[in-house]
Specification:
The protein has a ten-stranded mixed β-sheet with strand order 7-6-5-4-3-2-1-9-10-11. It has a two-stranded antiparallel ribbon with strand order 8-12. With about 375 residues, the protein is α/β, with parallel strands linked by helices. The protein is built from 16 helices and twelve strands. Helix content is about 45%, strand content about 15%.
């Protein structure tokens, strides 16, 4: 099959009403934040959603009907802090869990009281990522003003305590660490701190730079330094039983910039399936393709999610993407690399879209009827035939 053939096939299959609903969803419960972190897009006035908003019940109620199709949901502030509104958050968490979706949340952790920690554990939050970025109060104060390092640690201790008391394994807790020249030396100590606090994972994340914050990203400018402290943290994690992750996994490879900023892109396309697998709903009801996109596909106040997902804006964007006309916002994205176009890549892409949905459908069936009851019905049917 030549390039022209599979490009046309891609557009037929991936840019029409055959596109299934996304597996993953992000809800911007609020765009308010209690911190002004030095490396945050909100602090640097570079966010893509309306600032200082809280998701209304009206917007959330428009989301609920299709939650049964969603495999996992990020209930975070995106550019805000979800736990600024703990009652609203817990109410949303309960309703989402009733629909069977996994829920995870990213937070700065400064507002987790003992009572909130108990509710997070009781209501089966699946995963909680706490953005820490430091192992000492002094470094934390420089990076995440006006937050207090002790408040984050106390919140993490409360979660670990309630997991023990209620005999729950969830939420899985992860510490996120944005790699900067000014904090990278503390990464191994954060891994040790995670062990002390009962935290299961630590993730070293690449930092995006903004005017006034140049030459800080270890992934962009100090790869050897970043690699050194990452490997030291990785070793400590193996010794202590803490899982240490790298996001993106190739951030310290010397040629990564070239793979993400190619001048001649003929025969290549972005290695991204967000237009088929996930969507973001802002606090104001705007449906966005991803956290980096400034372009709204529609608003839930005006149409249902299904109508927007299969509507003209999404269809046009998908046609551009699979047809090689990569939109500017996608070309500039450093979170996804470029891959060579080929039938093999297409098949891997289709498999990545279809296989997880089939697996989830099977898991739901087994959970609903039980393995033995399902097997017995199949056996009875076979005998009848």
């Amino acid at each position: 099959m030549n390039s022209f053939d599979h490009t046309r096939f891609n557009q037929w299959l991936l840019a029409g009403r055959r596109v299934p609903l996304p597996r993953h969803l992000t809800l911007e419960i609020t765009s308010f934040c209690n911190l002004r972190c030095r490396m945050c897009p909100k602090t640097n006035h570079a966010v893509n959603t309306a600032e200082s908003q809280v998701m209304s019940r009206e917007v959330f109620d428009r989301v609920v009907p299709f939650l049964r199709h969603i495999e996992s949901l990020d209930l975070s502030g995106i550019w805000g802090e979800a736990f600024l509104h703990p009652d609203l958050y817990v109410d949303m968490l309960k309703k989402i869990k009733e629909q069977g979706s996994d829920v995870y949340t990213i937070s700065n952790g400064t507002l987790i009281t003992d009572d909130l920690a108990r509710k997070l554990v009781e209501n089966d939050l699946n995963k909680l990522t706490i953005s820490l970025d430091a192992a000492t109060p002094e470094t934390y104060a420089l990076i995440r003003p006006p937050g207090r390092f002790e408040d984050v640690l106390n919140g993490l201790k409360s979660i670990a305590s309630w997991k023990r008391q209620l005999r729950r394994a969830q939420p899985l807790v992860q510490l996120a660490f944005v790699g900067m020249k000014s904090n990278i030396e503390e990464f191994p100590r954060v891994v040790e701190l995670a062990h002390e606090l009962g935290v299961e994972e630590v993730c070293l994340q690449a930092m995006g730079e903004y005017p006034g914050l140049e030459n800080e990203s270890v992934a962009a400018h100090h790869k050897a330094l970043g690699r050194r402290f990452y490997e030291e943290g990785l070793q400590r994690g193996k010794e202590l039983g803490v899982r240490v992750l790298l996001q993106p996994t190739d951030q310290f490879e010397e040629d990564r910039k070239e793979r993400n900023d190619m001048e001649d892109r003929r025969g290549y396309r972005k290695h991204c399936n967000d237009l088929w697998n996930r969507a973001l709903i802002s606090a104001t009801g705007e449906v966005l393709p991803c956290c980096a996109s400034p372009v709204s596909m529609g608003n839930l106040r005006d149409a249902s999610f299904e109508e927007i997902w299969h509507g003209p804006a999404y269809t046009k964007l998908r046609r551009q993407f699979v047809g090689g006309e990569i939109p500017e916002m996608c070309r500039q994205c450093t979170g996804k690399g470029w891959v060579e176009e080929s039938l093999r890549q297409d098949l891997r892409f289709y498999g990545g879209l279809i296989a997880p949905r089939l697996k989830r459908r099977l898991k739901r069936r087994l959970k609903q009827y039980g393995v033995l009851r399902w097997a017995k019905r199949r056996w009875d049917r076979a005998l009848a035939d």
